[in-house]
Amino acid sequence: MSHDIASLNALLDAQRSAFLAEPNRALDLRRADLKKIEALMADHQQEWVNAVSADFGHRAETETRLLELSVVTRGTKDMRHKLARWMKPQRVPTPLMVQPGRSYVRRDPKGVVGIVSPWNYPVQLAMLPLATALAAGNRAIIKPSELTPATNALMARLLAQVFPADQVTVVEGGPDVAEAFCALPFDHLFYTGSTRVGRSVAAAAGQNLVPVTLELGGKSPAIVAPDYPLDDAAHSIAWGRFLNAGQTCVAVDNVLAVGSPERATAIGRAVAEKAAAFYPDFAHNPDYSSVIAGQHFARLESMVEEVRAAGAEVIQPAHDADAVRQTRKFPPTVVINPPETSRMMREEIFGPILPVISKPDLQAAADHVNSHDRPLALYVFSQNSREVEQLLDHTHSGGVTVNAAMLHLANDQLPFGGNGPSGQGAYHGRFGFDELTHPRAVFKAGRWHSTRLVAPPYGKLAKRITDIALKM
After folding, report:
1. What's the predicted TM-score (pTM) here?
2. Is residue 2 scored above 60 in pLDDT?
3. DSSP per-residue codes, 358-381
4. How far apart (Å, rounded) are the C-alpha atoms in residues 230 and 264?
5. Containing H/E element for 438?
6. Would the pLDDT of 71 be above 70?
7. Closest residue by Cα to residue 252 from 273, 229, 275
8. Contacts of 459 (CB under 8 A, 6+ apart)
9. What are the pLDDT digits (tens) for 315-345?
10. What is the rounded distance in angstroms from the CA atom of residue 472 to the CA atom of residue 97?
11. Which of 121, 117, 386, 422 is nearest to 253 (CA)?
């Protein structure tokens, strides 16, 4: 069902009224809410797999189970098991000047959370933020991408079976609905998507001073040191680029091959060989996913044609161009040293294309990273711990995996979020609970407290106490 502004406001008002009637949902009820999410993942696995694959044209079943359903299940279980500890007020020291008294911090729910989720992982990137919002005691309205209608319909139906609409609901519609949704006066807005749209989301939320979490993207580079084993690097990079046909926000976007110019060619060809081993006959391979839509496929084609015309080496498996357009299975593609001015070097690729660029040394690789927007992820391949620390000290990114790709995302004990243009705020585990709660300061004064001594009219005692305070 599509929604207009009036109906969106009505949904928000209903959830806010319900929240005000139950402003601090009890621990046992929050745990029960999380169990419902877990059950939706476990009891409807094939329905989720079929819906996502229908939206993509083809999505590898293992990728949906591993990267969507298991991520939501594991993250939700972790929150449920640790929730009691997270909800417990945190005692903090009370300074002498305000004693006697007791100081602590409560983690209070924010209220109604708006969740805008993208198409590339339509289950994980809607349901894990939802589970986080529920763990924090909030209510939530989800606006999923219009590019995944089958998944959205299933999500809306299943959530409506286990949650009342004044606690959790899904709204559907195109960009006009999304724009109106982001302008609502939520208590928190959680957006996952592109940096370009993220700027508009932040501006819309700012009109109502709505706090936002922006999980964006960018060009996540992999730096490969000169002595790192070629086969090991190629395996990790091919996995981290071509999984879900490259449609992953933390996918390896480009490789900075450190060393001689021949090193870039060697790495590029090794990655292409690994891709061929992973996805033989990619056009008919059930493990290789389709590009989400025709316009995205065409965008990727134009990127490749631009660098091919500029003389860059393009490595692709043999394929029938017309046939793969029909299935939207874009060939796993490696490009050696594309021009820096080309679109694939300026824009997030978000598809199965991997540029490999030669850099003479580690400092040049770090300079390349620093000359672009701070990426969501950085990948460092080196067996030398000093080299690793040197690169970490001289670059910035949302997260880092060393000697592998994307695995920092799989650890719920690590924050997941961007840095600058790649995002703001973080979630997963405790970090998400803190993101979607308000740290409320509480001081409980004793029967006697310092304001009984320092109060107008100020005299010698007030001056003495002030002198002591300035020296503490």
Report:
1. 0.95
2. no
3. EESSHHHHHHHHHTSPPPSEEEEE
4. 11
5. strand 437-445
6. yes
7. 275
8. none
9. 999 999 999 999 999 999 999 999 999 999 9
10. 9
11. 422
Pairing outcome for strands 423-424 and 212-215: antiparallel
Helices (runs of H) and strands (runs of E) counted in the chain? 18, 18
- Tell the residue number behind the tokens 């670059």, with chain if given: 395
Report yes or no: 124 and 96 within 8 Å, Cβ to Cβ.
Answer: no
Helix (H, G, I), strand (E, B) or coil at 399: strand
DSSP 236-289: HHHHHHHGGGG--TTS--EEEEESSHHHHHHHHHHHHHHHHHHSTTGGG-TTSP
In 331-342, which positions are buried (b, 16+ CB within 10 angstroms) versus exposed (e)? bbbbbbbbeeeb
Contacts of 63 (CB under 8 A, 6+ apart): 243, 244, 287, 289
Of the residues 63, 172, 215, 435, only one is catalytic, namely 215
Known catalytic residue at 435: no
Contact assessment for residue 172 and residue 1, using Cβ atoms and an 8 Å cutoff: yes
Contact predicate 212/425, CB 8 Å: yes
Q: Which residues pair with 64 in a beta bridge?
A: none
Q: How confident is the model at residue 168 (pLDDT cuts 50, 70, 90)?
A: very high
To the query of whether residue 249 is one of the catalytic residues in this protein, the response is: yes
Give the bridge partners for 140, in sequence order.
Answer: 113, 168
Measure Cα distances from 377 to 66, 204, 250, 392, 429 in Å.
Answer: 20, 26, 6, 12, 19
Residue of 63, 172, 182, 249 marked catalytic: 249
Enumerate residues 6+ apart whose C-beta is below 8 A from 132.
Answer: 75, 79, 427, 432, 433, 435, 436
Query: What is the C-alpha end-to-end distance of the chain, expressed in Å?
Result: 62
The H-assigned helical ranges of 173-260 are 175-182, 195-206, 230-242
Amino acid found at 161: Q
Q: Which residues are bridge partners to 192 per DSSP?
A: 215
Q: Are 82 and 206 spatial neighbours (Cβ–Cβ below 8 Å)?
A: no
The length of the chain in residues reads 472
In angstroms, how far is CA 373 from the centroid of its own chain? Answer: 17
